[in-house]
């Protein structure tokens, strides 16, 4: 069995996805229509399950869909947050957060499983007994599982996503009851149950909060008890122990750690095997390493988890002991391989000693896993050559690449029925589970009739989105304009600010020469900023300030419109992506591990403007450089610039157009009531910019001019769009999951269709 452990599952809505995967969408549609009901109206009532921040959480959701579709015995395990990612409201151009009370009206997709409730321990101390170490005097909190169905596509497989909710034990705070403060004792049960209250809203940033550590351990401890219960019960559906030989565990169980957030699974599995099951250290360690595998999602230093030793000492004293011993043996290995290299010992230790002592969770994950993977080829290479270079030199055989993918069910079949039908008319319906078959579309990329059909679908999607946006924002949109879309979490490395510089440049050019012919654009930027991320929030405010100036200038008219898309989430992505003409993927080379939004846009026939970063590199390779707008420094050139020393003023002074744009931001052109409003952003651009925006500005502007020119030639544009769609087969999460199965988990995909519930088994087998 495969266990995918993640602190985030960004599922979105389930109604339409379930109908699509069960093959009953049109029947249900028709039935409701005859009852006088509109299915789309009903679908709009469902809340998003927003149990994730962005890419990492959405990847987990796509993976669940693929594992079920490929007939794998796989379980997702996470936390049932009472409050998911906050709802974003834009008030006076600023982000305000509202709690996402998504369970307010109940969740019809979940089934509580109180019969499988499990205890989780915190605090306490460790004692020596004749039988070994014992963790005692702990505070117990119960983990109550809720099961959510994950239907495979058209194969009658239904897997399970099990999410844990924290429940206070009946005897919680017993001393209060004895003191007679009964009311306070009952109220304090909330403290225990706070563990599953809320998703931490940080993307690519480590907060180091105690409650977050408790969430991570809570999920790992409950999940591992479940895994071991199932392993011992061997026979399906039975509860008595029939399997006791733990050497078989790695043959029967694969645990995938989605980033380091579930990395406490490693010491927890060791604790169970040694303290509870009585194994010797070496046997337990061998089993643990063979069972666990770790996926790295980022190279940004501020995102890496480093837990203070004193926090672990207090909350998880036994685990800290185990981590220390893992480190002791690990450093012995390092010492054997590189005698006397003390600096390497320091670099490779699981414990960082500078300042307050911390546990480096990535190092723990690498040492405790048999496989470590990045999420795109370039990212996996950077991990080996830079971030984890020392570990690669110690155990090169552990390091792999698994380029991310997306599920074509939600991200084409469900969200873009017009394009799906068009594709199926040409090549049949098999592409939904064999996405590489889209390659056949190449033969019609120059076919005028097919081009017209593809353009018609895109135009319909754009009109539908334009209506929605007019309803929500009261802005009239020119549907003939290029829809230039930049949606993802707001972060400096993703360079929404660079997009902003382009918008202002475009605006200045129109003002300077109103009679010139321009390609009309509607630029849409959307995404949430972490509530404590000051710079990201300022960037949102700037985008809205620029939009305010541009959209109300009569000279600009409908040549340029700027919209900040409020509350970007899975459900909004499903509406926006099919309507996109241009996809913005403009992170500084070497910072975006993979990206998955890039793949969704490609699959839906948008063209990409992007850097050679993350999966953009492989997308360009699949479709050819003639079908994508690549610009900017490469990873090597960024490194070169860092070595040489980056001086933003060199670019600022050499380019009058750029200087004007930065000055406008700096001098309050977009904030007349507060001229200093965006001074901090200008300061970052000119003095403290880790992501070299001004160094890539010129290349970006030039490439955007090329984009505008190609858009004028609609036949050329749609030919490129068809080539994009035809080249997106590699980026199905089915392909990704097949590779995980083959190279890491030791499980095979199966395309066998199980008999439907109403079919007799024998008959189904005979047919097969």
From TrEMBL:
Recorded family membership: Belongs to the glycogen phosphorylase family.
Entry's EC annotation: 2.4.1.1
Gene3D superfamilies the record matches: Glycogen Phosphorylase B
A GO MF label: pyridoxal phosphate binding
Cofactor(s) of this protein: pyridoxal 5'-phosphate
Database matches in PANTHER family: GLYCOGEN PHOSPHORYLASE
InterPro entries: Glycg_phsphrylas (IPR011833), Glyco_trans_35 (IPR000811), Pyridoxal_P_attach_site (IPR035090)
GO biological process: glycogen catabolic process
Protein name: Alpha-1,4 glucan phosphorylase
GO cellular component: cytoplasm
Matches recorded under Pfam families: Phosphorylase (PF00343)
PTM sites of type N6-(pyridoxal phosphate)lysine: 600
Catalysed reactions, as listed in the record: [(1->4)-alpha-D-glucosyl](n) + phosphate = [(1->4)-alpha-D-glucosyl](n-1) + alpha-D-glucose 1-phosphate
SUPFAM superfamilies found in the cross-reference section: UDP-Glycosyltransferase/glycogen phosphorylase
Function: Allosteric enzyme that catalyzes the rate-limiting step in glycogen catabolism, the phosphorolytic cleavage of glycogen to produce glucose-1-phosphate, and plays a central role in maintaining cellular and organismal glucose homeostasis.
Organism the protein comes from: Asbolus verrucosus (Desert ironclad beetle)
UniProt superkingdom: Eukaryota
Keywords per UniProt: Carbohydrate metabolism, Glycogen metabolism, Glycosyltransferase, Pyridoxal phosphate, Transferase
